[in-house]
């Protein structure tokens, strides 16, 4: 499963190195205000040699395979605006606080925009990332959850909420023939039995390709 290395490292650095003002100051910040204190360079940052090795490994073991299978390059980068990211973190902190659930980080899930994606048509069939709030369960395991449907101190876990929707989508799979003539199975949801519900997960990143690269050469 491919993930965007640079964006992943950036988000991991944020989730581990940034600490809520409410824990670090003697005065209570204004209601619904979340900020973070500088503590120096995070331990999760890495050097350019390691970055180069990781990117090279991806290109040699996955990039070429995906390009040969799809007949084009798939997404290599996901861009998320800093202001939107801060607002998203503040939203998750507030929602988690209200449910008395510790927000321990963000889980990034690899996905692909489907053929019927209602957003930018250029992004259809390109890989993307879904961000989901995460907490520890009673066994100490990190698990994605949704504070919207959680009860006080009782997380509603993401995979349990998602399961009926995945079941419906997978039951509507159809055969499709891509440009290179090879047949494969894709999700082509044409009707919906379940009523769509909002979630605390996020997406809406800028993916490259199809748009010009931001951090890597084409």
Task: Sum up the structure in keywords.
Lipoprotein, three-stranded antiparallel β-sheet, 7 strands, alpha+beta, 218 residues
What's the short story on this structure?
The protein has helices at 5-17, 21-24, 48-70, 82-98, 158-171, and strands at 77-79, 105-112, 127-136, 142-144, 173-176, 184-187, 206-208. By secondary structure, the protein is of the alpha+beta class. It has one domain (5-208).
Biggest sheet layout: 3 strands, antiparallel
The end-to-end span amounts to 21 Å
Number of domains: 1
Uncertain runs: 12-25, 174-191
What is the strand content? 15-25%
The helix/strand order is: HHHEHEEEHEEE
Dominant shape: globular
Structural class: alpha+beta
The strand order across the widest sheet is 2-3-4
Percent of residues in helices comes to 25-40%
| Number of DSSP-assigned strands | 7
Q: Rounded to an integer, what's the Rg over CA atoms?
A: 19 Å
Instruction: Count every helix, treating DSSP H or I runs of 4 or more residues as helices.
Output: 5
Estimate the mean pLDDT confidence.
81
Biased composition (Polar residues): 197-208
Protein name: Lipoprotein
Organism: Urechidicola croceus
Region (Disordered): 197-218
């Amino acid at each position: 499963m491919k993930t965007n290395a640079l964006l992943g490292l950036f988000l991991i650095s944020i989730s581990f190195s940034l600490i809520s003002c409410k824990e670090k100051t003697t005065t209570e910040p204004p209601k619904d205000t979340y900020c973070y204190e500088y503590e120096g360079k995070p331990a999760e940052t890495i050097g350019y040699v390691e970055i180069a090795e990781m990117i090279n490994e991806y290109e040699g073991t996955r990039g070429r395979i995906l390009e040969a299978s799809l007949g084009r390059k798939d997404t290599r980068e996901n861009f998320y605006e800093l202001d939107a990211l801060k607002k998203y973190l503040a939203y998750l902190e507030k929602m988690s606080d209200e449910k008395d659930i510790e927000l321990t980080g963000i889980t990034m899930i690899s996905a692909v925009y489907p053929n019927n994606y209602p957003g930018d048509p250029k992004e259809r069939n390109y890989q993307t990332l879904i961000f989901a709030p995460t907490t520890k369960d009673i066994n100490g395991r990190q698990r994605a959850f949704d504070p919207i449907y959680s009860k006080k101190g009782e997380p509603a876990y993401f995979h349990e909420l998602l399961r009926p929707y995945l079941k419906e989508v997978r039951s509507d799979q159809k055969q499709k023939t891509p440009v290179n003539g090879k047949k494969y199975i894709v999700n082509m949801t044409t009707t919906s039995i379940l009523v769509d519900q909002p979630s605390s997960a996020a997406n809406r990143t800028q993916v490259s390709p199809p748009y010009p690269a931001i951090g890597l050469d084409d």
